[in-house]
Write a structure and sequence with these properties.
Largest sheet: 6 strands, mixed
Bound molecules: guanosine-5'-diphosphate
Strand content: 25-35%
Shape: globular
Number of strands: 17
Structural class: alpha+beta
Distance between the termini: 34 Å
Order of helices and strands: EEHEEHEHEHEHEEEEEEEEEEHH
Length: 309
């Protein structure tokens, strides 16, 4: 759960929602992520959200904030879920109004249902010839998704990512749904969260995007992330700005780990380098053991293991 054992209710503060966008190929996931990025009002002289660090946070004119996982498709969501990470508070399912429900739409609906994460339907491409929002609503009903107009409680919004239409309405729906979820976290504790992505970069070393779930992450903190550890040397946000600290639901790119962890790994701040080294060593041992002992139990198993390599 989001309330850690040692968190008292009075320490909990409202935090922004974390949103994943899913849907059928070509229905406009990438376009919508790009369009939503531009709704950020806090960019100012920094020149907008320009960095692709795997997640970004927009600040709306109301001051409300929303964090979007910037990886379209279902891969990131399933990868994180496979590792037991629950980072997404709600899923926006994009459906092209000129195409309707397609196989990956159904897959996305099933993912959201299996994860017990509420969904919002973005009926996209409303500007396109042949667009019909009503047809989409009918088709959704056939897949047990009842939007408000059909007597259900799933929010839907008609948008055009291309023409930048109704993006504010979509954001309103996200915030409305978030209020119902009462998303809170304790910012006054050692930070914990999830690795969104990580890579080795020439000249910079291991670079990891972390999403803080609870607590506040600070430069100088000693972090264990998956089987890697390090001291946070620098933190940068999606606008390329240097940060000293990162609050719950804020994605940040950090430098200072000794290796690249995997997307979906958890991270936590520990109180000493010795402790960090111990945990990291133990986890690396576990990883080696797991690799050593995954013996195929069938011919099919053997083939699928070979294919993975
Ligand atoms: P993805 O595969 O779901 O990420 O889809 P993309 O964002 O790559 O979009 C697929 C195609 O649909 C591109 O050619 C986009 O320009 C187009 N597209 C996306 N959103 C809209 C929209 O609101 N209206 C129209 N007419 N086309 C759109």
């Amino acid at each position: 759960g989001l309330v850690g054992e040692e968190d008292n209710l009075e320490d909990m503060q409202v935090r922004p929602p974390v949103v994943t966008i899913m849907g059928h190929v070509d229905h406009g996931k990438t376009s919508l992520l790009d369009a939503l990025r531009e709704t950020d009002v806090a960019s100012g002289e920094a020149g907008g959200i320009t960095q692709h660090i795997g997640a970004y946070q927009v600040t709306l004119s109301s001051g409300a904030r929303i964090t979007f996982l910037d990886t379209p498709g279902h891969e990131a969501f399933t990868q994180m879920r496979a590792r037991g990470a629950r980072v997404t508070d709600l899923v926006v399912i994009v459906v092209a109004a000129d195409d309707g429900i397609m196989p990956q739409t159904i897959e996305a609906i099933n993912h959201a249902k299996a994860a017990n994460v509420p969904m919002i339907i973005a009926i996209n491409k409303m500007d396109a010839p042949g667009a019909s929002a009503d047809r989409v609503r009918q088709e959704l009903l056939q897949h047990d998704v009842q939007v408000e107009a059909m007597g259900g409680d799933v929010l839907d919004v008609e948008v055009s990512a291309l023409k930048r239409q109704n993006l504010d309405k979509l954001e309103e729906a996200i915030l409305l749904q978030s209020e119902v979820l009462e998303l809170k976290a304790n910012p006054n504790r050692a930070a914990e969260g999830v690795v969104v992505e990580a890579k080795l970069e020439k000249g910079r070393g291991p670079v990891a995007t972390l999403l803080v779930a609870r607590g506040t992450l600070r430069v100088g903190d000693i972090v264990v992330a998956g089987a890697e550890w390090g001291k946070v040397r620098a933190m940068v946000d999606e606008r390329g700005r240097q940060l000293d600290e990162a609050a719950p639901a804020r994605p940040v790119e950090i430098l200072g780990l000794n290796g690249a962890p995997s997307a979906g790994d958890d991270f936590s701040v520990v109180d000493s380098e010795g402790r960090a080294r111990d945990v990291s060593q133990y986890r690396q041992q576990q990883q080696r053991k797991r690799r050593q002992f995954t013996t195929p139990t069938s011919i099919e198993g053997m083939f699928s293991q070979l294919k993975e390599k």
